[in-house]
TrEMBL record:
GO terms for molecular function: G protein activity; GTP binding. Belongs to the small GTPase superfamily. Rab family. Keywords: GTP-binding, Hydrolase, Lipoprotein, Nucleotide-binding, Prenylation, Protein transport, Transport. This is small monomeric GTPase. It comes from Hermetia illucens. InterPro entries: P-loop_NTPase, Rab_GTPases_membrane_traffic, Sigma_54_int_dom_ATP-bd_1, Small_GTP-bd, Small_GTPase. Its EC number is 3.6.5.2. It catalyses: GTP + H2O = GDP + phosphate + H(+). CDD domains: Rab18 (cd01863). GO terms for biological process: protein transport.
Length: 170
């Protein structure tokens, strides 16, 4: 059949924004309201079919908390895609996106890595960052953009699929 290669996709962003929850929703269609924070690196894979192509995604999820982060260079090495997550209800996590983009520039080894900015937790009614603001940030940095909820599933599948689609066409 038309089996393709493995694509490495990273999820990065501040602690508590929902990186592990987005991965769990996408790979297992599950949500845990008491999701434990990540220590070191977590990893899941999933085979997806997109536009009649199969791709195996290797999804890497790292700790947002600095003290729990290890092996940073190998985490970033050879990644084709990166999802940068913030919490739409917590402006400080949005303000940190610049430094996460900077990490990608330092450690990323592929010149045309596909990037997507994701505003998560849109199910919570205490928004501090508007959709418009998120969209403008993404546009300025030439990344894809979507808002999601790992809790309700809204936008989650679309986010991963858009990244994969873009990788496959570049
Ligand atoms: P670190 O591993 O510390 O970097 O955090 P993380 O970014 O992986 O966050 P995690 O997925 O552990 O989620 C943190 C908390 O937010 C957990 O209690 C989740 O259940 C909750 N959470 C994650 N996504 C959502 C969401 O879309 N909506 C709501 N309401 N809660 C969410
Ligand atoms: Mg985590």
């Amino acid at each position: 059949d038309n089996y393709i290669t493995t694509l490495k996709i990273l999820i990065i962003g501040e602690s508590g924004v929902g990186k592990s929850s987005l991965m769990l929703r996408f790979t297992n269609d599950e949500f845990d309201s008491e999701q434990a924070l990540t220590i070191g690196v977590d990893f899941k894979s999933k085979i997806i079919e997109i536009d009649n192509n199969c791709a195996k995604l290797a999804i890497w999820d790292t700790a947002g908390q600095e003290r729990f982060r290890t092996l940073t260079p190998s985490y970033y090495r050879d990644a084709q895609g990166a999802i940068l997550v913030y919490d739409v209800n917590k402006r400080s996590t949005f303000q940190k996106l610049d430094s996460w983009l900077h990490e990608l520039e330092i450690y990323g080894t592929r010149p045309n890595m596909v990037k997507m900015v994701v505003g998560n937790k849109i199910d919570v009614q205490s928004r501090e960052v508007s959709r418009e603001e998120g969209f403008k940030f993404a546009k300025r940095h030439r990344t894809l953009f979507l808002e999601t909820s790992a809790k309700t599933s809204e936008g989650v599948k679309e986010a991963f699929e858009e990244v994969v689609r873009k990788i496959l066409e570049t």
